[in-house]
Amino acid sequence: MNLKNSILIALFTTLLSCTKEDKLTVYQEKSNELINQILVNNESECSCIIEPDTNESTIQTLSTDNPKRNYKKIILNELNINDTFLKNSNELSKFYTLDESLNKNYKILKKEELFSLLKKYKGFDKLDELTKICPKGWFSFSPPIFNETFDKAIISYSFYPGGSMDLYEFKNGKWEFVKIIEGWIG
If we measure between CA atoms, which residue out of 79, 65, 73, 50 comes closest to residue 140? Predict the structure, then answer.
C-alpha cells in the first residue's frame, strides 16, 4: 500500500468516526469564516443581517425561490461531490447559527422581526420601514454547502436589491470569490 492510499484510508476513517456534533462544529466554523469574509468584502453595503431560516435546508430555500432550477445538480457539479455527501451537508445547513460576534458591526434581524414588519406594512411602506431600521441596507443568506474538504463552498446571498449564488474557495488563509453561478436583481 502506498503513502497516498494510507493517507486516504486514515482520512476516511477519521471522517467516519466523527460524531454529528464534530461535523456540525466544523460546519459552523467554516460557515462563519465564509460569511465573515463576504461581509468584510462588502462592508459598506449593509447595516443589518437577516438571520437565515433554519427550518429549511439550503437547497429547499433555493428551490422555493426558483423551483424550475435543479439546485441539487448545480451544487453536485460545482463542488464535485457525491449525492450522499450533499445530503449530509444540506442537513447540516438546517442547524446553522449566526456568529454572535457579528452583533458588533451589524444589527441582527431575527426572522420573526422581519415577518412581523412585513405583515404590519404594505407595499413600499415595508421598504421604508426596513430602510429606517437598516439605513445602509441588509444582507440575507442561506447557509453554505461545502465540498468534502471544506475548501470550496456555494452560498446564496443578497444585498438589497439583488443577490447571487456564488462559488468560493479557501486559499491562503481566506475565502476567495471564484464565480457567480446565478445572479438576480430585485
Answer: 50
Q: Measured between alpha carbons, how far is 135 from 20 in angstroms, rounded to an integer?
A: 39
Cβ 26 vs Cβ 151: under 8 Å: no
Measure CA of the first residue to CA of the last residue in the chain; give whole Å. 56
- Residue 185: other Cβ atoms inside 10 A: 8
For residue 49, how many other CB atoms are within 10 A of its CB?
Answer: 22
Cβ(130)–Cβ(138) under 8 Å?
A: yes
Q: Which cell numbers hold the place of 86? A: 450533499
pLDDT in tens, 83-125: 998 888 888 888 888 887 776 788 888 877 877 777 776 766 6
Closest CA to 159 of 69, 48, 16, 74: 48
The rounded Cα 153 to chain-centroid distance in angstroms is: 8
β-strands 107-109, 48-50 pairing: parallel
Q: Which residues pair with 22 in a beta bridge?
A: none
Considering the entire predicted model, what is its pTM? 0.78
> Could you tell me if 20 and 62 are in contact, meaning their C-beta atoms sit under 8 angstroms apart?
no
